[in-house]
Amino acid sequence: MNTADRYVPDWLDVSRETLAALVELEALVLKWTTTVNLISKTSALDIWGRHMLDSAQIAKLVTAKGSDWADLGSGGGFPGLVLAVIGREIWPQRRFTLVESDARKAAFLAQANKTLGLNVTILVQRVEALSPLSAHSVTARALAPLEVLLGFAHRHLRTGGKAYFPKGATYRQEVEAARIKWQFEEIAHVSRTDPQSAILEVKNIDPR
């Protein structure tokens, strides 16, 4: 695949090398999806917008300090691998841990990590079974309702850390439902790829 064939918005301010790595990752996902269900056939038709750019936009929101990043339920590498590719350029000191319980998807993550020359740790475990990761930043995409994600973040974020959760058009309802069990501060950033969706930036999470 050629980088010239991809729409590159102004906000995706990365080097040609990073862009080429993102396109290579896109090709790997499409190749593996023929045998492993990484993404749906429908979303594969617009993988660049639906998955690559949708994941990449998180990098523009990150204000959390520190070097340790945990991506939970990484699946096809969204957003974890995308952020690791971008992070190699803009956050060279950050360490990425990708958590995926499905062995076949974890095998993809390992192959992509090797092919792209990243330095990502892959844990083949269920999120619930993990020892606390003490991460500065936590992400999860299409994994669980916000109420559940906050429990994961509470366990795996260190004090002062932030979580970044892409959510669809019903994100406001998810926020209200989550407040029944959790206290937290959130900022809803309108998605750059779907104005009906948002990236929820969450911190100071505590059970009620």
Description:
- The chain has 208 residues and is an alpha/beta fold.
- Helix content is 37%, strand content 24%.
- It has one domain: Rossmann fold.
- The protein has a seven-stranded mixed sheet, with helices on both faces.
- Helix 1 runs antiparallel to helix 4 and helix 6 crosses helix 7.
- The relative contact order is 0.14.
Highlighted features:
7 helices, alpha/beta, seven-stranded mixed β-sheet, globular, 208 residues, Rossmann fold
Question: How far apart lie the N and C ends?
Answer: 50 Å
The succession of helices and strands, N to C, reads HHHEHEHEEHEHEE
Instruction: List the total number of helices.
Output: 7
* Proportion of beta-strand residues: 15-25%
Query: Helix content range of the residues, please?
Result: 25-40%
CATH topology: Rossmann fold
What composes the largest sheet? 7 strands, mixed
Strand arrangement across the biggest beta sheet: 3-2-1-4-5-7-6
Secondary-structure-derived class:
alpha/beta
CATH domain class: Alpha Beta
In CATH terms, the superfamily is Vaccinia Virus protein VP39
CATH architecture: 3-Layer(aba) Sandwich
Average per-residue pLDDT, rounded, comes to 95
User: What is the strand tally?
Assistant: 7
**What's the number of structural domains?**
1
Write the layout of secondary structure elements.
Elements: H1 16-33, H2 41-44, H3 47-56, E1 68-72, H4 80-90, E2 95-99, H5 103-116, E3 120-123, E4 135-140, H6 146-156, E5 157-167, H7 171-178, E6 182-190, E7 198-207
Parallel strand pairs: 1-2, 1-4, 2-3, 4-5
Antiparallel strand pairs: 5-7, 6-7
Helix pairs in contact: 1-4, 6-7
